[in-house]
Specification:
By secondary structure, the protein is an alpha/beta fold. The chain folds into two domains: 151 residues, 3-Layer(aba) Sandwich (Rossmann fold), CATH 3.40.50.10490; 118 residues, 3-Layer(aba) Sandwich (Rossmann fold), CATH 3.40.50. The strands form two sheets. Strands 2-1-3-4-5 form a five-stranded parallel β-sheet, with helices on both faces. Strands 7-6-8-9 form a four-stranded parallel β-sheet, with helices on both faces. The protein starts with 13 loop residues before the first helix and ends in a 19-residue tail after the last helix.
Length: 305
């Protein structure tokens, strides 16, 4: 591809360094979760709402699904602009890398003094740290690229570790994921459908978002069991169906029959998200795109008053 800005395929990007650093960053997050999370995060049995925008919303979905499935309390996830928070929640937890997203700031400001609030934030100097009642600061996971990778996954791993989920295999699988080259067929693929079940549905949505943001690719995402209720119609040669987490019966057989490439590995779902991040990066490179500065996007959405 002719690139008017030079050969971007030869350049290093913040996204590359940031996604590759995830195994090391996760190790620190696990240590901190073990030492501090009890005082900062929702208590077992509390009714909780988790809010965020974009990537943070998808991490909220994954956390909410896992927390409920572990029997730790009713947990709902909302995008901040559509949050139904007048439901007697014990705590409202916000996830935000920048801490400056308008909808998140407005929601927590409105709740001040009414409901106990918390935040997980990348920028420790953000205004959100003065609004939320409790704050988990993850500045070492913050990023320069507009496209989020490590802050989102570090936040989710921190939450999983604090809940007692076994994150041991995740780091080893992620080290493998960042070291493996991306197959050419994934760089050339026409379309991707990402699928998940339970808490991995949020990961599927996030993988699709990464592919759209970084490489302007045609991607979709669904709960795995819903895929055959219509979306499988787009599966075919040159297209990819990628499942995170538990496999549903005969899904692989049905997808393979269409001629599409079916991907389902026996590895940690978060590590699979890292693989999808890497595919989106390499597809951006191949198309002469800058994944650090995606079209029409900014690091934080700040709305005019």
């Amino acid at each position: 591809m002719n690139d008017p800005h030079g050969n971007l395929s030869d350049l290093g990007f913040h996204m590359d360094a940031e996604l590759s650093s995830q195994p090391e960053i996760w190790e620190r997050a696990i240590r901190e979760a073990m030492s501090e999370a009890e005082d900062l995060l929702p208590l077992n049995g509390q009714k909780v709402a988790v809010i965020g925008c974009g990537t943070s919303w998808f991490m909220a979905q994954s956390y909410a699904s896992m927390r409920e499935s572990m029997g730790l309390g009713v947990t709902d996830a909302f995008t901040a602009s559509e949050a139904f928070i007048n439901r007697d929640y014990d705590k409202v937890l916000a996830i935000t890398r920048s801490g400056t997203t308008t909808e998140v700031l407005e929601t927590l400001t409105d709740l001040k003094g009414e409901v106990r609030t918390g935040a997980i934030v990348g920028d420790a100097a953000s205004p959100l740290t003065e609004i939320a009642d409790t704050v988990v600061e993850l500045p070492y996971a913050d990023e320069q690229s507009v496209v989020q990778t490590r802050f989102a996954t570090t936040t989710l791993l921190y939450l999983q570790s604090a809940m007692g989920y076994d994150v041991g295999p995740v780091i080893a699988d992620a080290r493998t994921a960042v070291a493996e080259p991306v197959p050419q067929e994934l760089i050339d693929a026409e379309q991707f459908s990402f699928l998940g079940r339970g808490w991995t549905i949020g990961l599927a949505h996030e993988a699709a978002l990464k592919m759209r943001e970084a490489s302007q690719s045609w991607t979709e995402s669904y709960p795995a069991m819903e895929y055959r209720h219509g979306p499988i119609a787009i599966a075919g040669p040159g297209r990819v169906t990628w499942l995170f987490g538990e496999e549903s019966s005969d899904l692989g057989t049905d997808v393979t029959r269409t001629g599409a490439l079916y991907i389902h590995r026996n590895s940690a779902p978060l590590a699979e998200l890292v693989r999808a991040q890497k595919v989106s990066l390499e597809r951006a490179r191949a198309r002469g795109l800058d994944p650090d500065q995606p079209r029409n996007l900014a690091r934080s959405v700040i709305l005019d008053a």
